Amino acid sequence: MKHENHTQEELFWRIRLFDALSYPSVMISLDKTVVGANKKFYDVYNLTPEDILGKKCFHSFLYKDTPCNSDACPISRVITNKEGHSYTLKHQYKWEERVFSPIFDDKGDVAFVLSSIRDITRTKSLENQLIGVKEFITRVIYASASAIVAADRSGKIELMNSEAKELFGAYNGGEGTITRTEQLYPPGKAKEIMRMLRDEKIGGRGKLIIPRTTIVNAKGEEIEVEMSAAIIYDEHGNESATMAIYNDLKDKIKVEKELKMTQKQLAQSEKMASLGQLAAGVAHEINNPLTGVLFYASMLLERSDLDADAKEDLNYIVEDANRCKNIVKSLLVYSRSTDSNKRIIQINEIVEQSLKLIRDQKKFRNIQVRRYLSEEMMLINADTNKLNQVIINLVINAADAMHGTGKITLHTYKDKPHKKVFLEVKDTGEGIPRENLSKIFDPFFTTKEVGKSTGLGLSIVYGIIEEHGGRISVKETGTKGTTFIIEFPLYLPTEDGPHFCGPSVMQ
Ligand SMILES: Nc1ncnc2c1ncn2[C@@H]1O[C@H](COP(=O)(O)OP(=O)(O)OP(=O)(O)O)[C@@H](O)[C@H]1O
Ligand SMILES: [Mg+2]
Predict the structure, then answer these.
(1) How far apart are CA 432 and CA 398, in angstroms?
(2) Strands (E), 125-266
(3) What are the per-10-residue average pLDDT scores of the chain (507 residues)?
(4) Which residue's alpha carbon is nearest to atom 9 within ligand 1?
């Protein structure tokens, strides 16, 4: 009696439990007959027991007269496999998950199949939103103009956008493909970055911005970049990944370099301008007394009553006074106090002329002079005599730097889009020490024997090039030699008359 009470009580609870399920559920027998449904089912589908109990499931739910193909029937599947099975279904705006669970008898065979219907519309819409957000983030990452790399906790690279692949030269499956963060930096640097990222005092916890640092590409070449890195934490605050954004500084460095060069040139031309004024002043002041000295010394030399000693001394006076006169002349050229006689001329012609003038000098006996003169039309508006002086000065300096033996190369070419003509003078000499580079264009700067050289050569060259609206600089120098580069404005004849291009227009 007691046992029966318990059984009844349990049965009572089981029914209550079935009704308490929050999902609409139906119990189906092995022959596909609906044998029960819970309260939720009747409520949701607005049905009564008479509508469905004792009827076949395919009849009640699919409005069919015959059972479904057994392969497609989830109930058959649960009965055969003795395990649960589920699938999702999309109605117009709703998503449902249908869960079929076996109910076993005492012998362990499937006696019934419980079918529950779960509304998963909200979960599905969140899932779709998440997929949408993920796709959006992926698109943002791949559209970024910066290189982006993300790695897992162990340093294994999980993501590299196309910019990063280009920057690091890591094409999928290609030789030298980068797979780990350590490969992105010079040895030891990846660890150092992680240390800085974890240091709260540097950029805050898990964040780091390095305005200029070096990375290494797949070929082992070092590249200067601006970098910002971050540690990605999970919801518990544990490190789960790292990411870094890189911007190649190549273009920025180039612009900075150009700016520096322009500033240097500007400082140099300001210096030269004030020195030029000074030089012109001194030259004019000295010129008159010097003319007097030379005149009176020459007059004295004419006298017949001079003894040999006095004559020798007077000759020294005339010789040294002439030397001074030459210096004064050079100073006047440098300070641009001499007249200009410009005409439109092909630069190669001036180069040839200048070389003819030095051809027979002893200095060049063991020196090979090579010409790479572009055959293009490269017209400039120039004072031929002054440019001869420029080329001769540069070539003599080159010969001096090679101590008599070596190779001098003269190269002309043009950059039509930028309307410029270039002349390079290259030697295989000893090079210019770094500390002298800022002084070589200064008047009277020389490293050569005092008394033989005045140190006016390059300052005159500088003055002349400026007068032509051009620029001169040392392109490169080292133990293998030196290359000076001169840039002139290209003269372009136009249909509506002559037209000058470049930094200044000259007459
Ligand atoms: N091609 C070169 N290679 C190495 N050093 C050079 C070269 N050209 C110039 N220099 C250096 O620059 C200095 C200045 O040159 P600059 O032509 O003005 O004077 P200089 O040759 O010494 O004297 P000057 O030209 O008056 O006879 C030289 O003394 C030399 O140290
Ligand atoms: Mg010189």
Answers:
(1) 11
(2) 147-152, 157-160, 207-216, 222-233, 239-248
(3) 67 81 90 91 90 86 79 87 88 86 91 90 88 86 90 91 88 66 92 91 87 90 92 91 93 86 76 73 80 88 88 90 83 69 93 87 88 93 92 94 94 94 97 94 87 84 91 95 96 61 36
(4) 397
CATH for 249-338 (1.20.58, 1.10.150, 3.90.220, 1.10.1060) = 1.20.58
Q: 406 C-alpha to center of ligand 1: Å?
A: 17
CATH number (3.30.2130.10, 3.30.980.40, 3.30.450.20, 3.30.2160.10) of 2-119 reads 3.30.450.20
- pTM reported for the whole predicted model: 0.51
CATH number of 340-507: 3.30.565.10
Kindly give the distance from the C-alpha atom of residue 455 to the centroid of ligand 1, in angstroms, as a whole number.
7
445 lines ligand 1 (CB under 6 A): yes
Q: Is the CB–ligand 1 distance for residue 429 below 6 Å?
A: yes
How far is Cα 162 from Cα 428, in angstroms, rounded to an integer? 44
Nearest ligand for residue 450 CA: 1
* Mutation to probe ligand 1, out of 394, 428, 440, 452 (largest number of atoms < 8 A from CB): 440
**pLDDT on residue 442:** 87
Per-residue model confidence (pLDDT) at position 500: 47
Write the class of the CATH domain 144-248.
alpha beta
Ranges of CATH 3.30.450.20 domains, the chain: 2-119, 144-248
* Residue 246 contacts residue 145 (beta carbons within 8 Å): no
| Torsion region of 492: left, alpha or beta (phi above 0 gives left; psi -120 to 50 gives alpha) | beta
Q: Are 35 and 75 in contact (CB under 8 A)?
A: no
Output the pLDDT for position 447.
94
Confidence at residue 335, expressed as pLDDT on a 0 to 100 scale: 67
Residue 161 near ligand 1, beta carbon < 6 Å: no
Using a 6 Å cutoff on CB, does residue 338 contact ligand 1?
A: no
Residue ranges of the chain that CATH labels 3.30.565.10: 340-507
Q: Indicate whether residue 448 lines ligand 1 (CB < 6 A).
A: yes
The pLDDT of residue 414 is 95
431 class by beta-carbon count within 10 Å (0-12 exposed, 13-18 middle, 19+ buried): middle
